[in-house]
Amino acid sequence: MHLDDLKTPRHKNGSRYENEIVKYAADNLLKIIREEDIVFQISPARFAVILPNQDSSHALKLSKRINVFFDKHPMKHDTSTLTLSMRFGVASTKGFKVKGPDDLLNKANERLNKIRTLKA
Q1: Exposure string (b/e) for 38-57, b if CB count within 10 Å is 16 or more?
Q2: pLDDT tens readout for residues 2-23
Q3: In the chain, how many domains are there?
Q4: Which domain does 26 fall in, by range?
Q5: Between the CA of residue 71 and those of 2, 16, 53, 97, 101, what are the distances in Å?
Q6: How far is CA 63 from CA 10, 19, 40, 46, 59, in A?
Q7: CATH number for the domain including 27?
Q8: How far is Cα 14 from Cα 2, in angstroms, rounded to an integer?
Q9: How much is the mean pLDDT over the chain?
């Protein structure tokens, strides 16, 4: 998943604010996912979530739940608020010929990049 528009707040308020945004996103992702799910940060604006024993349809439902959460719970910073939005690239071991974890992550990344290109 990619945290949209992270560069804009950084340019306006500095990298410390960017770090606060990423922390806010990460802390809340941990609250949203199931206990057995795993979330990790790939880059400043990218996270990956592993959903053991789930297929793509569950991942799509989770992506909607995440965006609804951030729509309803904007980040408060000083006197302003920031509504976070994320874009998702979904891949699954079910129904795809995936050779291993790197292949799965690459497939999700390809799909994420395609979505980011379409919505740019």
Answers
A1: ebeeeeebbbbbebeebeee
A2: 998 765 554 565 667 788 889 9
A3: 1
A4: 2-119
A5: 16, 23, 28, 35, 31
A6: 25, 22, 15, 14, 6
A7: 3.30.70.270
A8: 20
A9: 85
